[in-house]
Amino acid sequence: MAKFISFCSQKGGVGKTSITTHVATYFYQVERIPVAIFDCDFPQHSLQSIRTSEIERLKMDEGFLRKAEKLGQTPYPIYADSVANTLPKLDAYANKNELVLIDLPGTLNVEGMPSMIQRLDAAVLLLEADPLSFESTMHTVLAMAKFSNKNGGMVPTYLLWNKFDSRERKDRYSGLEQAAINYLDSLNESRKTPMNVHFMEHRIPDTVAIKDTRSTLFPNAVIKPLIQELNNIFASNS
Ligand SMILES: Nc1ncnc2c1ncn2[C@@H]1O[C@H](COP(=O)(O)OP(=O)(O)O)[C@@H](O)[C@H]1O
Ligand SMILES: [Mg+2]
C-alpha cells in the first residue's frame, strides 16, 4: 500500500521542504523504496526548484554528473501542482507499494485541504522551540483533529522537533512537550475518541549539515535516525 505522508506546519521556515527532501532521497537511494513527491506548496514550489537547480548543475559540473551517474537509478519524480489538482492524482498510488511525500502549503485554508488531510497515513508536524512556533503548531493539531481519516479517527499525527539546540536548557524541550501533552489530555477528556498525537523521540539537530546536504539526488546520513523511527512507525501502523 502507498503511504501518503506529509511533513507540515502552518508557519514558514520550520523545515518542511528540507526534511521532506532529505527523507525522500534517503528512502529512495539508501532504503531503495519507490518514492514520489507532490510539491503542493504553491506558488513557491521550492522543492521542485531544488530539483531544477540540481538538473542545471548536472549540465554544467562534470564531477557532479559523474557522482550522480554512480547512483545507478533515475531520480524519483517530483510533481508540482495545487492541492486540489493533486488529489485525483493520488488515486493512481492507492495500490502501489510506494512512499508518497506531499509538501503542503503553510495554511490549511486552501481548496482541497480537508480531503488531502483525510487521505494522509501520517502527518508529521515540525516544531521549533520558540513560543510562537509552538503555539501555531498546537493550533494546527486542533485543526487537524477536526478532519477524520478513512478509519473515522484522527490522521495519525506526529510532533517532531526540528532545529533542536542541544545547548539549550535540558528541560526546555521536555517542559514544552509535557505542557502540550497536558493540554491535549485536557481536551481529550471531552472527546469521544482521543486525538491521535504523539511526540517523536528523535529531534532533528540544528546543523548546517541539514542545509548543506539537502538534495533530491544524494542521500545524507544526517537524516538516518529519523528514517529509523519512521520505519518503526510505518511498521506499527500497517
Ligand atoms: N535542522 C536544521 N538545521 C539547520 N537549518 C535548517 C534545519 N532545518 C531547516 N533549516 C533551514 O531553515 C530554512 C527554512 O527551511 P525550509 O525547509 O525551507 O522550511 P519550510 O519549507 O518549512 O518553509 C532553510 O534555510 C533551511 O536550510
Ligand atoms: Mg517550504
Show the helix and strand layout.
Blueprint: E1 3-8, H1 16-29, E2 35-39, H2 46-60, H3 62-69, E3 78-80, H4 83-90, E4 99-103, H5 113-119, E5 122-127, H6 131-145, E6 157-161, H7 170-188, E7 197-199, H8 208-212, H9 224-237
Parallel strand pairs: 1-4, 1-5, 2-3, 2-4, 5-6, 6-7
Bound molecules: adenosine-5'-diphosphate and magnesium ion (MG).
Summarize this, please?
The chain has nine helices and seven strands. The protein is an alpha/beta fold and 238 residues long.
Structure commentary:
The protein is an alpha/beta fold and 238 residues long. The protein has a single domain (3-233), classed as P-loop containing nucleotide triphosphate hydrolases (Rossmann fold, 3-Layer(aba) Sandwich). Helix content is 44%, strand content 14%. The protein has a 7-stranded parallel β-sheet, sandwiched between helices. Helix 2 (46-60) crosses helix 3 (62-69). The longest helix is centred in the C-terminal third of the chain and has 19 residues, at 170-188. The chain is globular. The protein starts with a strand and ends with a helix. The model has no long low-confidence stretch (mean pLDDT 93). Adenosine-5'-diphosphate (ADP) is lined by residues 9, 12-18, 46, 162-163, 204, 206-207, 210-211. InterPro entries: CobQ/CobB/MinD/ParA_Nub-bd_dom, DNA_Partitioning_ATPase, P-loop_NTPase. Pfam families: CbiA. It comes from Spirosoma endbachense.
